[in-house]
């Protein structure tokens, strides 16, 4: 025979457990999501993001594993095949030295994306640090850093890059591909960091006036802790958007410098080098230009589209 008091106690425990589970579920559901989680949830529903991310992911795979897409040596040439049109043996045809354009486009993806990524990282790193310090400290620190940024911001990009690269490459000898890549990345970063600095500075000025920063200062937090723990995480979004868009622009900048003879050069393979080699044969062999230029345009467009999608996802006013 069942004890009524034991049954009542069991019912009470079960009721408390149900209430506890309901409160836990309510707390889990009501827990506010972060900006990044909201942005990611919004991005996954945007066709623009899906298309651009798919293209970029494919290009990254091509750059990392080019041998998966072609078994042809990009440097193997045969003058008897010079400027032959696209065919079943060579989908994109041959260049002036009889080299397979498809293989060169595939292997050129690595150098083009490498220059873009490295330039973006250095630009955002320099500009981000300068902008954080300028926006947080203000006063004479802000005045000095802002004037230095204005000097670099006033330099025309192409002209400044030509001067910098000409100064370093005017000496004797033939520098290696790694040296030239480093110089190209350095020149792009030196002429582009003021934009990242201004974006980070504006974000830092806005964030440092928030209550949680004032509370951290009142509790005795050091400047370095406030910058790293509070300012930096809340200032990354606009700089991330700029970096995403700038990456495509920097890939185009490398192609421009290579076209002018100041960027990468043979034996290195990049889309800019291929476009430079095709400039004298555009009318008689347009396929020399179409394929590397087409990949360049698609890549730049993909990063610009990705940057627009990220900007709209991170800015609640644009949703």
Automatic annotation (TrEMBL):
This is Oligopeptide transport system permease protein. Its main location: membrane. It is found in: Cell membrane. InterPro entries: BP-dependent_transpt_permease (IPR050366), MetI-like (IPR000515), MetI-like_sf (IPR035906), OppC_N (IPR025966). It comes from Crossiella cryophila. The chain crosses the membrane at residues 48-69, 113-139, 151-170, 176-196, 231-251, 288-307. GO terms for cellular component: plasma membrane. Residues 109-307 form the ABC transmembrane type-1 domain. Keywords: Cell membrane, Membrane, Transmembrane, Transmembrane helix, Transport. It is a multi-pass membrane protein. Belongs to the binding-protein-dependent transport system permease family. One of its GO terms (biological process) is transmembrane transport.
């Amino acid at each position: 025979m069942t004890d009524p008091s034991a049954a009542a106690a069991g019912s009470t425990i079960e009721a408390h457990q149900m209430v506890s589970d309901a409160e836990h579920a309510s707390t889990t559901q009501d827990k506010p999501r972060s900006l990044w989680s909201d942005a990611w949830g919004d991005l996954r529903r945007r066709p623009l993001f899906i298309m651009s991310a798919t293209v970029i992911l494919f290009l990254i795979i091509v750059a990392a594993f080019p041998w998966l897409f072609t078994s042809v040596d990009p440097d193997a040439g045969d003058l008897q095949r010079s400027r032959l049109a696209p065919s079943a043996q060579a989908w994109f045809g041959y260049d002036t030295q009889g080299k397979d354009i498809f293989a060169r486009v595939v292997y050129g993806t690595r150098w083009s994306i490498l220059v873009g990524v490295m330039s973006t990282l250095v630009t955002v790193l320099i500009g981000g640090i300068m902008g954080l310090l300028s926006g947080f400290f203000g006063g004479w620190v802000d005045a000095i850093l802002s004037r230095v940024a204005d000097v670099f911001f006033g330099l025309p990009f192409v002209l400044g890059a030509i001067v910098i690269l000409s100064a370093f490459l005017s000496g004797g000898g033939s520098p290696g591909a790694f040296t030239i890549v480093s110089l190209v990345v350095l020149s792009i970063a030196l002429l582009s960091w003021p934009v990242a600095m201004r974006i980070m500075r504006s974000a830092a000025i806005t964030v440092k006036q928030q209550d949680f920063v004032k509370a951290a200062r009142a509790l005795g937090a050091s400047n370095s802790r406030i910058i790293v723990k509070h300012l930096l995480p809340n200032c990354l979004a606009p700089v991330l958007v700029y970096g995403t868009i700038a990456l495509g622009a920097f890939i185009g900048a490398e192609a421009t410098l290579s076209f002018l003879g100041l960027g990468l050069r043979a034996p290195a393979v990049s889309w800019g080098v291929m476009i430079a080699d095709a400039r004298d044969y555009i009318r008689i062999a347009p396929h020399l230009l179409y394929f590397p230029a087409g990949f360049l345009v698609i890549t730049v467009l993909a990063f610009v589209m990705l940057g627009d999608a990220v900007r709209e996802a991170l800015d609640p006013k644009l949703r």
